[in-house]
# Entry
Amino acid sequence: MGANAIPPPGTRRPFSGLRRALIAGALGVLGTITALTVPVPSAAAASTLGAAAAQSGRYFGTAIAAGKLGDSAYTTIANREFNMVTAENEMKIDATEPNRGQFNFTNGDRVYNWAVQNGKRVRGHTLAWHSQQPGWMQSLSGSALRQAMIDHINGVMAHYKGKIYAWDVVNEAFD
# Structure
């Protein structure tokens, strides 16, 4: 098939030069992208990466850092190109429960609120991850660690109940 030929129905079309440039720019500005393979129907190309994904019932998401929400280039690209947002670190254990039993959702809520105000769905990330455990949790083991995890998950889930589209519950559970 030639470079300009239209692929048969049901096959994936390579990204156009514009889409490749948008992906490269989004990667450079935003970092992590959630769903990179996007089939584009041959009938019509979408105007944004999120719209292209939506044409086939998929989403195109990115991780958003609360500290970058004041950067207009960052938020302009995120708002234009993506239809799903994941908090970069703001919903992880060390950010949401820095001290046992004391929850802090300030930055997670900033990401959530920005996403919702801009018509995005939010994917929660992550309720349990070894890499960003707060100091108080690192010394626990056995049933004490299990109870701390249950309490943490229940606390975060109660706060975001009915708000989050989907959760990455456990990240990198196996070495």
In short: The first helix runs from residue 17 to 30. The two ends are 43 Å apart (CA to CA).
